[in-house]
Amino acid sequence: MAFTVLIVDDSPAMRSFVKRVLELSGFDMGVCHEAGNGQEALDLLSKEWVDVVLTDINMPVMNGQEFVQNLAADESLHAIPVIVVSTDRTEDRVRQMIALGAKGYVKKPFQPEELREELEKVLGVAYAGN
Amino acid sequence: MQGTDLQRIFLESASEVLETMFFTGVAEENSEEASGTLLCAELSFRGRPSGRFGVRTPLATGRMIAASFLGLDESEVSDAQAGEVTCELTNMFCGSVLSRIEAGARFELMHPEVDPANTDWRQYPDSIGYTFGLEEGTMTLWMALEKAPALVA
Ligand SMILES: [Mg+2]
Asked: What is this model's ipTM?
């Protein structure tokens, strides 16, 4: 089955890079939605179901940290696994995002395989539970 | 920190980022900034220390890098896209450099922006920059540190 993905990043260039990497990596991707910040992502998620979310941290309007907190607090959305994709490489930050509810973390710059492996790891975990 | 250490850090970061996500690399460790139209982007960062970080590259190099990042032909890349990709590059270089300078320290990177005025980083008091030769063109990475606020008695 193909996975529906939501890419949340304020940079359109980064969103299209991530999307292209996923297409080329052999990851089984179906529909790919995009949002420019956490608020846009929440608006989209109120209408569309997705299997996994990839989110940046530094974004205007609603950053990745608030977005992950909002998802975790929402009854109908908290089961959607979130992977953080960020230039912030500090272990502090990784721990913090995981504690807030993120299921994975990929540090930029990343090799295409790293992103795919993290997605498969996170989705494997999520789907084994169902 | 010694200049040679910083140059090594800038070089390692430039190589890592360019090779991993931009499908190019550093071909020459010491280079002169190319003349002609430049594409400049910079951001400010907060932490210990705080400061600004920027990238300068000839527009033609910026467009080439944007094309490979976006999977487009160079003729399809708009100036806006070249700018966006240069901003993303600035973001990644800065994250990489800071994590090498202060491993484990927490930094907040602000939103990178294209600087249409091509401000010369050398005007900042506590600044350092290095220019690397790429397969095509050059890329300058610079950083300017803010002085810690003076303690008022
Ligand atoms: Mg961002």
From this structure: 0.85
